[in-house]
Sarcosine oxidase subunit beta (Aquibium carbonis), 419 residues
Amino acid sequence: MKEYSALALLKNAFSGNRDWKPAWRKPDPKPEYDVVIVGGGGHGLATAYYLAREHGISNVAVVEKGWLGGGNVGRNTTIVRSNYLLPANTAFYEHSMKLWETLSHELNYNVMFSQRGILNLAHSPSQADDYIRRGNAMRHDGIDAVWMTPAEIARKVPGLDVSARARFPIVGGLMQPRAGTARHDAVAWGYARGADRRGVDMLENCEVTGFLRDGDRITGVTTTRGEIRAKKVAVAVAGSTGRVMKLAGIDRLPIESHVLQAFVSESLKPAIDTVVTFGGGHLYVSQSDKGGLVFGGDIDGYNSYAQRGNLPVVEEVMSELASLFPGWASVRLLRSWGGIMDMSMDGSPIITTGPLPGLYLNTGWCYGGFKATPASGWCFAFTIARDEPHPLNAAFTLERFHRGAVIDEKGQGATPRLH
Ligand SMILES: Cc1cc2nc3c(=O)[nH]c(=O)nc-3n(C[C@H](O)[C@H](O)[C@H](O)COP(=O)(O)OP(=O)(O)OC[C@H]3O[C@@H](n4cnc5c(N)ncnc54)[C@H](O)[C@@H]3O)c2cc1C
């Protein structure tokens, strides 16, 4: 497999770009692997990469029912940040941020990680107190956080209505300068190529339809491309967690599947060079390199496995955008789509061994699984290889919900709708 470089670009330009090789092979399934990973999204692919890279385990297959990157990893609004309050989340997401910072070089694949910052707007004194507390917790842990006044915000984000007459006046904002965005499908492709180069098999159009068992122990999977035996089976299927785990006989999990929509506007000239989130409702917006505004809001609020949403949320998100940026009210919406979200009951993820011998589970990513991709794969690979969690994911257990020891970042209770 060739390295991607400026020299390779030049050489291929002279040969009419006919010598590029596919980024990963299309092998037939082998009868047995050391590890089968179910789900070729960002988390499954990153797990495969780090299993091979960090633990020397490369007799691995990633089993994907559709095409690599066709799930949430290719459907999200691409925001990457580590601005959390609770210790378990802070340490985990900052580890992810550090992996993001070197990811393009690490993978020899440009994931277009752009540290343009994220600004959380506060619209009331109590919200400002809350954000300042979070910023202080971040700084205490060595994570960058800056409090911005309305005047500083007005200079940083022209077009934002910071006037006292605004529908939701802005009293300040918490900025994380190292946060930003990345090219979502490049992340999937980069990890896939990196894992493939180390011998991992990518099995696309291969749906897991059941599990092979020896008593309680999981010993492989049945798929639309035949039976595959495995010493270990790791499930990372995001919004399909309930459906896939049911095939293993696990029919009660602290996870609900919900649809979340994303929106892209027509291309504009450069209008906003950071990510802005609205504290008066739920809206996040940035501008892509092609000029489109990329934005989203709340989940639709009902359980669903459909990759499309409904008009009430479209209307709500558009009205929030127009109230923050009145000048954008006439910008045309170009595209929208939905993804199936694995919403956990406390808003935090699960990366664990079990719940059956031979089985490993990665789920519960809610709104935030894209930014978690590197750390999630890194920690899940560790957990699979060593049969125990890394300290960074030790708190992300399944049994915390039995004990009530939840990691409820927002303190909102066991309601996925609110996380
Ligand atoms: C609209 C939207 C906006 C978002 N915005 C952000 C954001 O700005 N920042 C952020 O951090 N996060 C964001 N997220 C969340 C983030 O995208 C997800 O949490 C994360 O991508 C989930 O992990 P994944 O990439 O592994 O999932 P996926 O890419 O969904 O991968 C799961 C894979 O499992 C496969 N699968 C399912 N069932 C089977 C089966 N039976 N057999 C084989 N394969 C199967 C699916 O086909 C899929 O490819 C957003 C999500 C959505 C939908």
User: Anything to note?
Assistant: Residues 45 and 327 are 41 Å apart (CA to CA).
